[in-house]
Each structure stands twice: as structure tokens, then as C-alpha cells.
Design brief:
The chain has 120 residues and is mainly α. A hairpin with a 2-residue loop joins strand 2 and strand 3 (62-65). The mean pLDDT is 91. The relative contact order is 0.11. It contains six helices and three strands, in the order αβααββααα. A three-stranded antiparallel beta sheet has the order 1-3-2. It has two domains: 8-67, Winged helix-like DNA-binding domain superfamily/Winged helix DNA-binding domain (Arc Repressor Mutant, subunit A), CATH 1.10.10; 70-118.
Length: 120
């Protein structure tokens, strides 16, 4: 099972890749040095971890995204709901709304999502 969590620096680096992809690995080293203050070895170590997690691929010296940032966030959200609420979206929403009142716009957006999922 793929791990859908990133450390703080992995997240910052992933954002850099999404912002520039596809990007040459040499250029990525320069960007990471400039923005994050990383050495070449650190860049390649973290890149390998992100590739192992299925976010990116480094082929022929070009780093490309295997999934978009939105897809990644979706996977993280699914994983969180699965782990914390046994996969139950209603249980998650109950816990969420017990502490934070939804706005009318949020309620309407949820209604639309439910109607679309229900095919109505």
C-alpha cells in the first residue's frame, strides 16, 4: 500500500516539482538549492522517496508528475477518512460539523455533490 503522507520538506519539494514539471533533474537540483538550500545529494534522496511513493518519475533525467497535486490531495483525504473513520464519509462529516458550522454555500456545494453522485 502506498503511503499517502509527506513530511514538511517533502511537501515543499513536491510543490516545486509540480510547479516546474516536467523538469530536468539537473535544473531541479538548481531550483532546490535556490529555494530550499539543498545540496544535490539531498535533492536526489528526497526525489527518490517521492518517486517511491508514486508521485513522480525520473526517466532519462526528466522528472514528471505521475499524479496531479489535486489527485495526491484526494488520495491523502481518502486515506485519512479510511484510517480515522473506517472509510465512513458520514462519520467524518459528523465529526467535522460538530465543531465547525457549515456555511450555506458549503451546504449547497455538498448537496450538489451528493446529487451528482446519486445521478440526479
Amino acid at each position: 500500500m502506498t503511503e499517502y503522507r509527506l513530511g514538511e520538506m517533502e511537501e515543499k519539494f513536491a510543490d516545486l516539482i509540480w510547479e516546474h514539471a516536467p523538469v530536468g533533474s539537473g535544473e531541479l537540483v538548481k531550483i532546490a538549492a535556490e529555494v530550499l538550500g539543498w545540496k544535490k545529494s539531498t535533492t536526489y534522496t528526497v526525489l527518490r522517496r517521492l518517486c517511491d511513493k508514486g508521485l513522480f518519475v525520473n526517466e532519462n533525467g526528466v522528472v514528471s508528475a505521475l499524479m496531479s497535486k489535486d489527485e495526491w490531495r484526494g488520495k491523502q483525504s481518502e486515506n485519512f477518512v479510511e484510517e480515522a473513520f473506517g472509510g465512513s464519509l458520514p462519520m467524518f462529516l459528523t465529526a467535522f460539523t460538530s465543531r465547525k458550522k457549515l456555511t450555506e454555500d458549503e451546504i449547497e456545494a455538498l448537496r450538489k455533490m451528493i446529487a451528482e453522485a446519486d445521478g440526479k
